[in-house]
């Protein structure tokens, strides 16, 4: 399963998570640094002092553009697919 997750884990968490999930995420972050074959550390962004549902520093519109760009970069080749452009 490891190779299928490479470049796909993007985790945003507040350091003051309401449900204290930040502790488990820190453990996952540390474990990901030890992975091999393939080595993939994932992407972790910690919002200092932020609560549960922290979604990063981007606005919702900016995040949607980021997601659309990521999907477009991973899409199968199609010669003419204008619906992939935002």
Task: Describe this structure as you would to a colleague.
- This protein is an alpha+beta fold.
- The protein has one domain (2-84).
- The chain has three helices and two strands; from the N terminus they run H-E-H-E-H.
- The chain has a two-stranded parallel ribbon.
- Strand 1, helix 2 and strand 2 form a beta-alpha-beta unit.
- The longest helix is centred in the C-terminal third of the chain and has 15 residues, at 60-74.
- The chain starts with a helix and ends in a 12-residue tail after the last helix.
- The model has no long low-confidence stretch (mean pLDDT 89).
Summary keywords:
12% strand; alpha+beta
Brief summary of the model shown:
The protein has 86 residues and is of the alpha+beta class.
Set down the secondary structure blueprint.
Layout: H1 2-5, E1 10-14, H2 21-32, E2 43-47, H3 60-74
Parallel strand pairs: 1-2
Estimated helix fraction = 25-40%
What's the story with the biggest beta sheet?
2 strands, parallel
Q: Name the structural class.
A: alpha+beta
Poorly predicted segments: none
Query: How many distinct helices?
Result: 3
Strand order of the largest sheet: 1-2
SS elements, strand count: 2
Instruction: Spell out the helices and strands N to C.
Output: HEHEH
Shape: flat
Mean pLDDT: 89
As a percent range, the share of strand residues is 5-15%
Q: Termini distance?
A: 31 Å
Radius of gyration of CA atoms, rounded to a whole number: 16 Å
